[in-house]
Amino acid sequence: MNSINRRTWLRSSILTVGGAAVLPHLAWGETAKAPITLDNFGRASYSPFFKEYIPRQLEEVALKAKLNANENPYGPSPKAIEAFRDMATKGNRYAWKELFDLIDKIAAKEGVSSKHIIMGPGSSDLLEKVGMVFFFEKGGNVVSADPSYMSLMKVAEATGAEWKPVPLKDDWSHDLEAMEKAIDSNTKLVYICNPNNPTGTLTDAQELYDFCSRVSEKVPVFVDEAYLEFMPEKDQKSMVSLVSKGKDVIVARTFSKIHGMAGIRVGYVVGQPETLNRINKITRGGMGITLPSVYAAKASMDDVEFQTKTRKLNNEAKEYVYASLKKQGFEYVPSYTNFMIFPLAMDGQAYLDKMYAQGVGVRSFEILGKSWCRVSMGTMDEMKLFTEALQQVAG
Fold this sequence. Notes:
Elements: H1 3-14, E1 43-45, E2 50-53, E3 65-66, H2 78-87, H3 96-110, E4 117-120, H4 123-135, E5 141-146, H5 151-158, E6 162-167, H6 176-182, E7 187-193, H7 205-215, E8 221-224, H8 241-244, E9 249-254, E10 267-270, H9 273-283, H10 291-302, H11 304-327, E11 339-343, H12 348-357, E12 360-361, E13 363-367, E14 370-376, H13 380-394
Parallel strand pairs: 3-12, 5-6, 5-7, 7-8, 8-9
Antiparallel strand pairs: 1-2, 2-13, 4-10, 9-10, 11-14, 13-14
């Protein structure tokens, strides 16, 4: 494949639903056939409010600081690595009994029965499966915030559904009142990412709880909690308790973030058995999860020390970036996750290209007509590379 064709392939690949969700992996492949359109400026267009600038030198750059995918730079945990390594020789076997053991362990943690859990290779896979099951050949619409993680919505659109975006409020929280008003007789699902990606912001837990409890009586509510565990444990207010109360709420969790297992691929959703049975028709009960991955996930759940350390180091990195941005004259949006956004005073495409030229991978968006950077939290050394590059590029 020559360099021009390869570059074309790379750009088309990252603009598919598999990359969606604001292209979380700068992904190398397609998991669904719903290309995101490019506008005249080469930006991926998600909505009238939200576009993404695409790096123009993907294949040429060796990144010194990979801060574009919200990955955990410290994981997997040592215990997870040991468990994965020990079970690698059994990778020729399907993980049925072992998967059920993991489900039981997760169910105990979440305070629900095992029949309320289904597994998948990462939560994005399950998000996309929900989009397929709820909307394939049936139309309807899905209501969500804008901007937000786009994986489910792009799959829904690919299957013929309509996306009804509701802009975030001025404080970057979900406009729950407007979202509830957006629900109509054709709404099949409401999607909420909390904390939200790409903004890193939080919607009040009690307000969200009341919203989910009320709205789920009319339409299922999907709550994506991929980043919840980066918050202090006392502040981790999951919506999973609504499931045990019989509400038609689906809660997604992942081992890709705090557990540092993005490349090992384990995730799950909690929901009502009848809802999960619909999803299970195309998930095959978590068959996409390898046996070593199952053991790694079980070990990682027990490694509370690693999770606590990750949370601490992530917060230290954020505080360092906050201070550096303030010193350089940038405003920023306080984050509850392992990434953050801040506005740029320069063109988003030029910024992105110059940062990549410095060997620093970040993301750049246009939100409501203004350019923004999203930077994931890496190690402290990586964050120092980022702030030094930022000073040269936009200082």
